[in-house]
């Protein structure tokens, strides 16, 4: 067994400078055992690409999660766990297929294209407010002003959440993130977990009843059409599926927009090329997804003991799919540490592979292709006004704050 006692996905360096940290791990061994996490860590691209489609590595873990809880913690997490049990992400076929099928046709490139006008409108309004905030040399947090509210507005539009009722979504996403990312060390963990479960049931439940009575052209109404199908989603599964899409559609896209913008502002040549339209937006977005993947690491469980590249994976062990490291593997990407907006081909793993390939990939690409060029063109002298503060989580590469200012 290849052992690396020092692998700590929550180490300060792995949070602030993960590419350097994980690059050293990958260069020593693309698959290694972490004593710190009691888990396998896959950092190599070929190794991770193969792992994504291996049925011996499973996402099923909710039963085990619930069984480890007791007392007040179990009570506090009950509502949140009921939502997580409806996440297709935590199931394998056939349950995964059944949970994903009612949603699939709503997230194809053709299906999300009609959202273009709405996204452009949200971007324009946010940039107008940002222009006011940036006046007179002020320093503004780009996460709070732009990359956080934009995906919340878009996903609310998709679900049919009225604009004047959508404020709860961003607040709920932050609370639910405490559960999803396992921030059990927080003193308010139980309180936030309880609130996250009850708030979604209350707010989304009311919308579901509204569109059950009077359907409209939105995702909730589409999901409700499947209620009469015996193999369709149950009420609990519908809430769970919605919680996944609301959270991932907001939190993950927020992470991508923030880290991509920070990377561009740190690389003046790439930002200039994108601002002037000197590169095609489609490959540019793919490169930004590769260069600063919003997903840092995904977790799997070994469902069947097997040997993998000289390592013995025992049933029940945990495996971390470290996408951030794989997407800069020099065995696959020439000059992997360089941001190259014209890179082609670009077989990045930001959205995974196989049947768990990210359902919202087309929507995330659309938002990115509209929002990032618009931001750079509206503020040609936009710059980082201090260090980016990154959230200390295992699973995502997400900025807590991005201080920006404009010159002139």
In short:
It contains 18 helices and 12 strands. It has 408 residues and is an alpha+beta fold. Helix 8 (116-133) runs parallel beside helix 18 (361-378), helix 11 packs across helix 14 (235-266) and helix 14 packs parallel to helix 18 (361-378).
Strand tally, please?
12
Question: DSSP helix count?
Answer: 18
| Strand coverage percent | 5-15%
The low-confidence runs, each spanning 5 or more residues with pLDDT under 50, are none
N-to-C CA distance? 57 Å
Please summarize the sheet with the most strands.
5 strands, mixed
Content-based structural category = alpha+beta
Helix content: 40-55%
Spatial order of the strands forming the largest sheet: 1-2-8-5-3
**Element-level helix/strand string:** HHEEHEHHHHHEHHHHHHHHEEEEHHEEEE
Rg to the nearest angstrom? Answer: 21 Å
Shape: globular
- The averaged pLDDT comes out at 89
How would you describe this protein?
By secondary structure, the protein is α+β, with helices and mostly antiparallel strands. The chain is built from 18 helices and twelve strands. The protein has helices at 12-16, 18-28, 45-52, 62-67, 71-84, 95-104, 109-112, 116-133, 142-147, 149-159, 167-180, 189-213, 219-224, 235-266, 268-275, 281-291, 323-326, 361-378; strands at 31-34, 39-42, 57-58, 140-141, 298-302, 306-308, 311-313, 318-321, 382-384, 389-390, 399-401, 403-406. The strands form four sheets. Strands 1-2-8-5-3 form a five-stranded mixed β-sheet. α15 (268-275) crosses α18 (361-378). The mean pLDDT is 89.
